[in-house]
Design a protein that fits this description.
heterodimer, A: 231 residues, alpha/beta, 6-stranded mixed β-sheet, 4-stranded antiparallel β-sheet, 7 helices, 33% helix, globular, B: 294 residues, alpha+beta, 4 strands
């Protein structure tokens, strides 16, 4: 799914500008890093794509969906094609690893057999099959993030949004997660990843969009994290 | 099918997770629907009694001890609208009472002789004539008292009207109370799963899918409450009627079991409907807010 931002601005009441006049075009299958200081508008941009945030001005289209006016049913259908990885994982503590991942397929109404098979495959892919009966508090940070990744990709979304997915992890675990995300992108999934991790951005060179005070200040095809000390 | 299984599994989890609240909700709706059922039965009974009494076209005229029953009966036959006149002797009156309330031997031994007056039973051509015939009878010197069912029917009709209004007020208050209790129970359940619902909506679950377990939970709680109320009503009604017949043996109460069964079914249906609406409102309010963008 292509993602297009046309003159998008978001002003939170009373006068906090989170995004200002953003124009972006992200073609299907691309890997994009969103970089910028804390509070620059990276998360707001991601939340605009999931329509948790509605722009004050401008248009956002994702595939055939125009997000300006979308019914609740259409929004549910649209969100089925978007996978989200949160920095703080947002796993359900009363469900075990298997249930946390299977939950997505269940709520999408998949038949029980498919839920079992597909969840098994994904847990195998993220190396968590042996830990499927453990609960989130019994897992390490890296394992919890891998569950979050598995949950985000279990229904094979066209777009994967990752908000600081390595923010709470050590470098080694962060690399593991990164390789997992890269492999998902290689299968054709569009990935937009907001990050502060300079090492990863520089090690796995991809398109870099720099945001500062809500504005896109740079957009490079194979960029680096910090250009001339700007970001 | 998968969705329905999920809804049933989740609804049972919700009920068990908040078992204290669930039990309290069932008890509250049980009390509410029992109250509604009891007031409906009160109205049905008064209407039944009024209908029967209104249908009786006879007037009872009690004679003075000096009056001759046959002569008086002859006079009464001449009154306009009178169709038939029957004489009820002291003995017949006593038998009638004994037939209704049982053996009076002890009382009769105490009194020595039959204290009941002789009377005439007068049938008129139509219900609207009862009043004028009763007036003519009251004017006769041979008659000491005139009693007719229409008078009682009129009083009962007034009571029935009042009972109807009172029951309607109870119905409104009780259903509102039940809906509010159910709404709050479901709302607590919804808030206890706030995070889960948030994730569900983010991964593309439809609001209907999210609402299903909560609506099912509401229907189960409300349905169980009203089912309990119906059973209690059916169980207690026969006992209450038996007691009332002892106290007021001359009143024809509703003794048809079908009425109580039908009322029970209506109560269960009403309980499930009220729960359905209350839980839908509770979940919809939440999902609408959760899906509204910032």
């Amino acid at each position: 799914m292509d993602i297009r931002f046309s003159g998008v601005s978001k002003i939170f009441y009373p006068d906090i500008t989170a995004l200002e006049d953003v124009y972006l075009e992200i073609p299907k299958g691309e890997f994009v890093y969103l970089v910028g200081p804390t509070g620059s508008g990276k998360t707001t941009l991601l939340r605009c794509i999931t329509r948790e945030v509605a722009p004050t001005r401008g248009q956002i289209t994702v595939g055939s969906f125009s997000l300006r006016k979308i019914s609740r049913v259409d929004l549910s259908i649209f969100r089925r094609d978007i996978g989200i990885i949160f920095q703080d994982f947002l796993l359900l503590p009363h469900l075990n690893v298997f249930e946390n991942v299977a939950f997505v397929l269940e709520v999408l109404g998949a038949p029980p057999r498919e839920v079992k098979e597909r969840t098994g495959e994904i847990l195998d892919q993220v190396n968590l099959w042996r830990r499927r009966f453990l609960y989130p508090p019994q897992l390490s940070g890296g394992e919890q993030q891998r569950v979050a990744v598995a949950r985000a990709i279990v229904n094979a979304p066209s777009v994967l949004l990752a908000d600081e997915p390595t923010g709470n992890l050590d470098l080694h675990t962060a690399e593991e997660i990164m390789q997992l995300i890269i492999s998902i992108n290689a299968l054709g999934t569009t990935v937009i990843m907001a990050t502060h991790n300079q090492y990863l951005v520089d090690a796995y060179r991809q398109r870099v969009i720099g945001i500062k005070a809500g504005r896109v200040v740079r957009d490079e095809k194979r960029g680096r994290y910090n250009l001339d000390g700007e970001l | 099918m998968g969705s329905f299984k999920y809804a049933i599994r989740d609804a049972s989890r919700l009920i068990l997770r908040h078992w204290g609240l669930s039990a309290l909700t069932i008890l509250t709706s049980m009390a509410v629907f029992y109250l509604i059922g009891a007031s409906v039965l009160l109205v049905l009974n008064t209407r039944h009694i009024v209908n029967i009494l209104e249908g009786e076209l006879s007037v009872q005229a009690y004679l003075s001890p000096r009056a001759d029953p046959h002569e008086t009966a002859q006079k009464v036959t001449g009154i306009q609208h009178v169709v038939k006149v029957g004489i009820i002797t002291k003995e017949m009156a006593l038998q009638k009472i004994q037939g209704r309330v049982g053996d009076w031997t002890g009382v009769m031994e105490l009194l020595g002789e039959n204290p009941l007056p002789e009377s005439l039973e007068i049938w008129v051509d139509r219900a609207s004539s009862v009043e004028s015939v009763a007036l003519s009878l009251s004017a006769m010197t041979e008659v000491t008292d005139v009693v007719y069912a229409g008078k009682l029917a009129e009083k009962l009709s007034q009571f029935s009207h009042f009972a109807g209004q009172f029951s309607f007020a109870i119905l409104i208050v009780a259903i509102t109370a039940s809906a509010v209790v159910l709404f709050n129970t479901i709302r607590i359940a919804v808030y206890s799963k706030e995070e889960e619902i948030g994730i569900m909506l983010m991964v593309g679950a439809t609001p209907t899918f999210v609402a299903m377990p909560f609506v099912l939970q509401g229907i189960i709680l409300g349905g169980l409450g009203s089912l309990g109320a119906s059973s209690l009503l059916a169980f207690s009604y026969s006992g209450i009627i038996a007691r009332l017949k002892d106290i007021l043996p001359f009143l024809p109460f509703l003794e048809n079991g079908t009425v109580v069964i039908e009322l029970g079914l209506i109560l269960v249906g009403a309980g499930a409907t009220v729960s359905l609406i209350a839980s839908l409102v509770a979940v919809e309010t939440f999902t609408k807010r959760a899906m509204r963008p910032l």
